[in-house]
Every structure is written in structure tokens, then in C-alpha cells.
Amino acid sequence: LVIIAHDVDPIELVMWIPTLCKKMDIPYLIVKGKARLGKIVHKKTSAVLCLTDVHPKDQDTFEQLRNSGSQKYLARYETIMTTTGGKIMGYKNLSIKAKRERAERAESKRQG
What we know:
- By secondary structure, the protein is mostly helical.
- It has helices spanning about 15-25, 35-40, 60-75, 75-85, 90-110, and strands at about 1-5, 30, 50.
- Strands 2-1-3 form a three-stranded mixed beta sheet, with helices on both faces.
């Protein structure tokens, strides 16, 4: 189980982790506050925490967290990744696309 803090700065430090977790089929959670994760490892803050093994008495709680991570994030990965950002292209990408379309129209006029 991988637990990621939501307030990591710069975000580039952790933005690739959900993709890696999906590829490796590892459940992950995103929690509020890197200070909360820091308390677990006895530090001021922590960006990411990976739990591999727990005490036998905490196994039930660990399984609940794993199931929650699988349902909330891992199972919905494709939906989350395709809806984030509103699918709006930037200026540079729109310019390149328009240039290609103009070139295709010019080519079709020359041939036809």
C-alpha cells in the first residue's frame, strides 16, 4: 500500500507514483497533509509512505485500507486520468494541430 500526501511541493516529486502503482497493481491512497505522514515515520513531514507489512493485530485495518485504495483510486484510474484537466489543449498544441490541418487541406487540394 502506497500512501501519497496531497500537498507535496513541487508536485513533480510524486505525480508519477499513481501511474507506477497502476502498472505494478499496487493500491495507493492520497491523504491530506504531509505532516500526517510525517507523524507515522517520526519526522516533520513525509511526501510518500509505503506499507509492506504490519503487526498481526493491525492486519484487519491494513486490509481495509488496501481495499479502500483499490476501490477509490486503482479501479477508477482510467476515469480519473481522462477527466483530470478538462481535456483542454494548450495554445502550443492548438497551433500545431491547426498547422497540420492547413497542410492536409493544401495537400488534398493539390491532389484533387
